[in-house]
Amino acid sequence: MTAITTTENNALAPRGMGxxxxxxxxxQAMKFSHMLAESDLVPKxxxxxxxxxxxxxxxxxxxxxxxxxxxxxxxxxxxRAALWGDAVIAxxxxxxxxxxxQESDDGHTATCRAKRRGEPEQVVTFSMDDAKQAGxxxxxxxxxxxxxxxxxxxxxxxxxxxxxxxxxxxxxxxEEVQDTPxxxxxxxxxxxxxxxxxxxxxxxxxxxxxxLPTWRAAIADRKATPDSVIKKIKTKGTITPEQEAAIRAxxxxxxxxxxxxxxxxxxxxxxxxxxKTLGDRMHNATTxxxxxxxxDLIGEVADPEARARLAQYFEERKFALxxx
Length: 324
What we know:
- This protein is mostly helical.
- Helix content is 50%, strand content 10%.
- The strands form 3 sheets. The chain has a 3-stranded antiparallel β-sheet. It has a two-stranded antiparallel sheet with strand order 1-2. Strands 3-4 form a two-stranded antiparallel sheet.
- A hairpin with a 5-residue loop joins strand 6 and strand 7 (122-127).
């Protein structure tokens, strides 16, 4: 058994016959991050950014990558940490869960065959027709210079994320995220919203009276909140303060049952939205409108980690629906 010792609190531990620079404490990790950020051998996303270095090393630790491997294979794309495609296939092939990954391209369509032990083979293709539909074919940059390589990366990303999500820990693939448009800043949010409302048609009294029972029923069944209903309404039309007050009006609760119910929320507190319920609803959404309507409820989930998982799943479902 090889003993691992440190002579100082900030020393990096020797392992075997060489040195492993993996930090052993948080203080070591912080010091190492500053050293890496000052180095000329790290990618631009980490140059002068010790915080980025620290987070990338933590991601690498969860994925089984050493610190320097993590900084070389994790990219920051549109504000998200993502793995380069070569690291994705390396992690999958090194996992005991992987039986094989085979890739081919016939000049028009890239194919990725992935086999997980104990499960059937999964085959994913990505063709130039798919690239055209996604607005990628002929796009300035890699898609016009190396279309074969980009087809390969897209087929690989779809296949390996579907078959080995546990190995990749839900990390997106950099080549795929690069093709996703980043958010565009549209100026002051309040002013833009006011301008948008001025251009929206107003709900007539007849239209509002016809739709109000449906909205109120969704609020009463706790499928939506007054805020989420009003937000959704304002994307399609304007309402008066009186109409908004009618939506927010208190809803009479049914008389209590004879037998006491002990597994409900305290009086006056709405039951928190369940992560599984909302996840199933996004999974079953077949249109972008239905998906966005479900995503409006993410804020009703109490657990911050659950909200983060649902937000990531929303992005994946959105991409899948846009690609159909």
